[in-house]
Amino acid sequence: MRVSVITVSYNAAAEIEPTLSSVAAQTWGGIEYLVIDGASTDDTLNLVNRYRSRVDVLVSEPDGGIYDAMNKGLRLATGDAVIFMNAGDYFYSPYAVELAAEFMQANPDAGVAYGGIEVRFPNGQVTEFMPPPEGEALQFLICGSLPHQGTFARRTAFAHTGLFDTRWRSHADYDWFLKAASDPRVGLRRMDFMVASFGLGGASSQLERGERERHAIQNALPLYRQTEWMERRIEAYQEQYIGLRLENERLKAE
User: Fold this and answer.
1) Which of 23, 177, 179, 198 is buried most deeply by CB count within 10 Å?
2) How much is the pLDDT for 208?
3) What is the C-alpha separation between 79 and 153, in angstroms, rounded?
4) With helix as H, strand as E and coil as C, how does 77-93 read?
């Protein structure tokens, strides 16, 4: 099984080398590695060129944003499955691709296979996140999201979902997960191991815009507009609101 690993970067000299080295360290022999760069003006390309023998496709040119670049990578990829490991993220272990490829070979119905991720916070805290099993994915996606760094998708899955919708500037990957999870032709499966390490950036300044976009994406999904799912969404938001209120009271008491 051939796996295409796609790294999207732009002026990422401060964070891309762990990404490059983690791909180079993978034990799976059937890896195609693509780096899609947005015409970086810093030292990014010099760092990529240090690993040039392991990079099968290198493109550096202006693009229309991260999801336009990710779509460019999808169009160029030739593997049976793809995973995005963008600058700053890296594989959890050298065996991550090997484990995933073997899992997908053993589960041909899995159009999308996702596993856990390590989350690195700006304050140095590290935690692990394992998404819920596939049967709970749609419910979980109301308030949460599956990690694209922990997700391998067969190229055939994109034939059903389409590429990333670049109308969405912050959460086109969330939109794609909703489409994949709600389409029975795709087939989601969870892998019970850690796939990647993800660095959580300081995106609080974009929180309001991002959340508004998430809700717009949900409202555009036919499944979530059905009465049953509208009721589920309301219940999920109510539970989240209660949880946030309780946490706020706890923090004030401290």
Assistant:
1) 177
2) 61
3) 10
4) CCCCEEEECCCCCEECC
